[in-house]
User: Fold this.
Amino acid sequence: MSTDCTPLNLDLLGRTALDRRTLLTRAACVGGALATSRFFCSDPAEAASMLTLKATHGTGLCNCPFFMVKEKDLAAEDGVKLDFVTTPTNADIAALFGAGVVDVSVVPYTNFMTLYDAGAPVKIVAGSGVQGCVIVAQEGINKAEDLRGKTIGTFQADTLEMLPLDYLKKAGMSFKDVKVRYFGTSPELATAFIGGSIDAMCHIEPYATQAMNSRKGAVKLSDGTDVYGPLYTDCVLAVRSKLITENRPAVKALIKAMMKGQHFEESDREAAIKLTTPKYFKTTFDAALDASTKQPGMIDQRRNQEFILGRAQNLKDLRYIKALPTADIFDWTMLNEVIAENADLYASLKLKSA
Assistant:
């Protein structure tokens, strides 16, 4: 069952900058969420043996450790399991989490900051995936200056909007020099680029690799490491503050399970991709496997705290948030405890802060 059955905060949904699409789309999503939420706090028999955390997730490889928790029941030994709530668009992933419909979410850190700024009681408790944000362009576009007047596809208030902005800034340019077109889902954006209806896109793995393989002459302009350096954050594990207060052990169980998921992905990458493609990654197995090393899981992202906070100015400049967040958005205490209590598991991870 869910530990947080707070009704949807419709005002929060309306105020968050994630929702600049049609009111009809958002209304349909909220209506579906309300109908689904009736079942969140049911089945006392199940509650006695297993705590089910309702969750939303993204579509990129940064979610792979989260998917491993679900598919392999990696938190079951600690009495926790995940139940994923389907969302119509990328924007709804964060919106339902911010509104209290679900307990936890793997979400781009940028989306998280828009929710926090809007007043959602949420905290970042761990990382999920690093790198994997890729700017891909059509043949003939080889550098930032070639993008002048061209159309770039991306998602709003997303890490995939931050990279092209920072990439252009590095070349002395801005969004005023290009045409930005926003999309609703990952397959939709990839299809638009492969079909030639946009000049460039910033997309997540495995869709960036899919596009490179599917569009003749496609050029990779940036994979983010040239702008941010290696192991930059894409997605984080965030939870409702109420869950931390009321069931701290459940949060720790999830973080521990995420570490197990990272270890499984690192030790048997092919098996991890077989479990998740095409169920979660709407592409071919070969494309997903090829892309899997380009956006690895990394649960311990304490080292990236300042990087995340550093991107907040972009969000403020784009008017997604009103105030710059502080370190209060993070609660690493449970991650610290899981690491201390599971030294062997932590030592087995290839990517980590320590």
In short: The CA atoms of residues 232 and 292 lie 16 Å apart.
